[in-house]
Automatic annotation (TrEMBL):
It comes from Kribbella jiaozuonensis. It is an enzyme of class 2 (transferase). This is Oxygen sensor histidine kinase NreB. It is found in: Cytoplasm. GO terms for cellular component: cytoplasm; membrane.
Amino acid sequence: MGSVQSSSGGAGQPVWTRALIGWHIVFWVLLGMTLALSFLGHLGTVRQSVFAGTVVVLGAAYQFIGLPAIRSRERLPRYAYRLVLIAALVVLIGIYPQSVFLMFIGSAQIWLLCEDIREGIGLSVLLILGVGTAQLWSAGWGWKAFWEILPWMLVSLVVSLLFGIWIEKVITQSQQRAELIEQLEAARDELAEAHHSAGVMAERERMAREIHDTLAQGMTSIVMLAQAAAVELSRGADASARLAAIEDTARENLAEARALVAAFTPVALSEATLTEVLRRQAERFATETGVDVQVSLDLPDDEVAALPQAQQVVLLRSAQEALANVRKHARATQVRITLGLSDDGVWIEIRDDGSGFTPATVSGGFGLNAMRGRVEESGGSVQVESAPGRGTRVQVLIPAVQEDA
């Protein structure tokens, strides 16, 4: 019963608190009817005055003690009002037995203000005993009146207990429903927060891959070209070609940075086909490193151009990452980039004749892991074959999809 309290939320608010206005109206209607009917009962001046005074006391107690107690659930006001209620009903029914129908609202208020079933049973028994005694007094005492009143008292007690238990179950269900709604709302908020956090992390990873595959590699090229230009200048040689390459790389990096702000489509692919971009990458890589890089196609150039933009981005970034690893680790003299189409989808292979490594003993670093993450997001797969002294082969396979019309 302790769950009956005011709540600001409509959905999770206990049912008895939401229905408080209805109980308020019923109480005043019944109390007013009782007072009006008492004037038809020819009670006499003294009894009528006592009866009216008791009605006023009960109304005042309800307004100034009972209602605040229902809202606040404070222990002392709850007990004080119910004791006044029981005493008032005893007086009213003793003076005018026809006002016994006030028992309906009296029993409801007793249970409404209870904290547990034992408290409700105790006060209900007290109410029935008090009202029964008042009726017995009004009937002039005697065993005949007692046996006439006893069945009514027992029936009233049973009805009161059943009514109180029903109220308790309704309130308990209301509380459980309110708690369930709170849990669902909390779960919904947690899920939304988790989705937001996952989205933020995915976006961060995506940005990290884009920066690693574009800006970081461009900066690496600039550093290597600058070092080579410094060596040539120290020897008195002409470094204008190196400086021009540095300028071109810097301009490409600037364009890529602007593209990252606006979107994630590489600038190169927005201005040329994938085949042309791969050949430009190969030429620049060969110029910067002296490694012989060849690009070959196992499918017509028009089919390459017809590939979905998302697939082209994944294939290009995979090739860039593989070339970056060749630059950093392979010490290769030849690299071959092959773009092809199979029944499983489109694939790109980057093979070098460098020093190689043992894939099982290498974690792959951020670059290879970023490549795997990007490819797997597209539903594809990455295969790395290598051995010490036997070069490395990286193959990326992207399942064939049809670009939306």
